[in-house]
Design goal:
The protein folds into two domains: about 1-75, Arc Repressor Mutant, subunit A, CATH 1.10.10; about 80-145, Ferric-uptake regulator, C-terminal dimerisarion domain (Dna Ligase, domain 1, 2-Layer Sandwich), CATH 3.30.1490.190. It is about 40% helix and about 15% strand. The chain starts with 10 loop residues before the first helix and ends with a helix. It has about 150 residues and is α+β, with helices and mostly antiparallel strands.
């Protein structure tokens, strides 16, 4: 029997979810659309947007937002940390445990009720750092973003 609180996993939703979970690149809606169109050539961009929002509101995927970048989507709905590269705008999953004590610390300090937290580090990804380091510019790149 289906849980009525969850929307039906239509063919379109299933394929969007499958394509999103295949990658760890945290694609934008446009990028998800391009991935899904290979399997569903007649799907519209509006349908992809609508279904990404629905899958996110159901907790099957995560929506990553930033004031300085377009919305991106993460096929891993579990709470985990990210690094957003200030050079290439890539979002990388960080292989560190979520600090559960942070929720309690904020709650005890502020009196707010905290359910979870989202933490995004900003810096320079390994690929960009190695590229600039190989060109002899790593110190300049890192210094510019310290402030």
């Amino acid at each position: 029997m289906r849980d009525d609180s969850q929307p039906r996993l239509t063919k379109q939703r299933r394929i969007i979810l499958e394509e999103l979970r295949k990658v760890q690149t945290h694609p934008s809606a446009d990028e998800v659309y391009e991935m899904v169109r290979k399997r569903l050539p007649k799907i519209s961009l509006a349908t992809v947007y609508r279904n990404l929002n629905l899958l996110s509101s159901c907790g099957l995927i995560r929506t990553l937002t930033s004031a300085s970048s377009q919305m991106r989507f993460d096929g891993n709905p579990e709470n985990h940390y990210h690094l957003r590269c200030v050079k290439c705008d890539r979002i990388v999953d960080l292989p560190i445990e979520v600090f559960a004590g942070l929720d309690e610390c904020v709650q005890n300090t502020t009196g707010h009720v905290v359910f979870e937290h989202n933490l995004e580090f900003q810096g320079i990804c390994r690929s960009c750092h190695e590229h600039h380091h190989n060109e002899g510019r790593s110190d300049h790149v890192v210094e510019r973003h310290k402030n």
